[in-house]
Write a structure and sequence with these properties.
Blueprint: H1 10-69, H2 75-78, E1 103-108, E2 117-122, H3 126-129, E3 133-135, E4 146-151, E5 172-176, E6 180-186, E7 191-193, E8 215-223, E9 230-243
């Protein structure tokens, strides 16, 4: 005798729907937690390692170049005496073209702590900013006339510019390259701008305290802290130079 089919009771269907929905929510919540942990923790670990590697390789290149330029200790003793020549002003070598993604300077901001130092790489592509601070191509270099403009992540990928809102007028930003150290002094508190306001990195930056040509530094990062709808911009002015010291 054929049995008659009867639909499941409404309470059974309801329990099945609730259980399925709960399992989907639990799975989605787990994935979200894992993604947040990846963004907040693992990208920071990877970026810190990448920045330290770039900085160490940069210092090694500088040390190797300095050693190659240093004459042998006994070179002066072996050289034959010559008549004294009038002193001449050494010509400043022309700046070398920078390769995109290559580290060429190191930045230190005392306000950010005694251990804060980051490599500055050429370019501002996303891949570059995962390994350090990025130099806006076409802007001035360290110590040069014009505007040395640098970008960095505020959050994720090592949070290099997390504390940019803490900068105040009078704070120092120190940049060094292979041979020189440049001290810039912050002249205004961070300003919130739109990403379309690209004139903030002009040679005489728009909306800055500066109205005439000079040697300036511009730092940019995202705002709000976990967003990118705006930018925070800090301007500084070159106030000192000197020979670079190791470390």
């Amino acid at each position: 005798m054929r049995s008659r089919w009867s639909p499941p009771r409404p309470d059974v269907v309801l329990r099945l729907v609730v259980r399925t929905f709960s399992e989907v929510c639990l799975t989605a919540g787990t994935l979200i937690v894992l993604f947040v942990a990846y963004v907040l923790l693992w990208t920071g670990v990877k970026a810190d390692r990448a920045m330290e590697g770039e900085r160490d390789r940069l210092r090694d290149r500088w040390a190797a170049a300095a050693a190659a330029d240093r004459p042998p200790p006994d070179a002066a003793a072996q050289a034959p005496p010559t008549a004294a020549a009038p002193p001449q002003q050494a010509a400043e070598p022309p700046p070398r073209p920078r390769t995109a993604g290559q580290a060429f300077a190191e930045m230190y901001v005392p306000r950010f702590g005694p251990d804060w130092s980051k490599p500055v790489l050429e370019g501002t592509d996303p891949g570059v900013l995962k390994k350090g601070l990025g130099h806006y191509a076409g802007t001035a270099g360290p110590g040069e006339a014009g505007n040395f403009a640098v970008a960095g992540h505020r959050r994720t990928y090592g949070d290099p510019f997390k504390d940019v809102p803490e900068l105040r007028p009078g704070d120092e930003v120190i940049v060094r390259d292979a041979t020189r150290r440049y001290t810039y002094t912050v002249r205004a508190a961070p300003l919130r701008t739109l990403p379309t306001e690209v004139a903030v990195v002009d040679p005489v930056p728009a909306r800055s305290p500066f109205t005439t040509p000079g040697s300036y530094l511009t730092l940019t990062t995202c705002d709000p802290e976990w967003g990118h709808s705006h930018r925070l911009v800090v301007w500084a002015e070159l106030t000192g130079t000197g020979p670079a010291a190791p470390g």
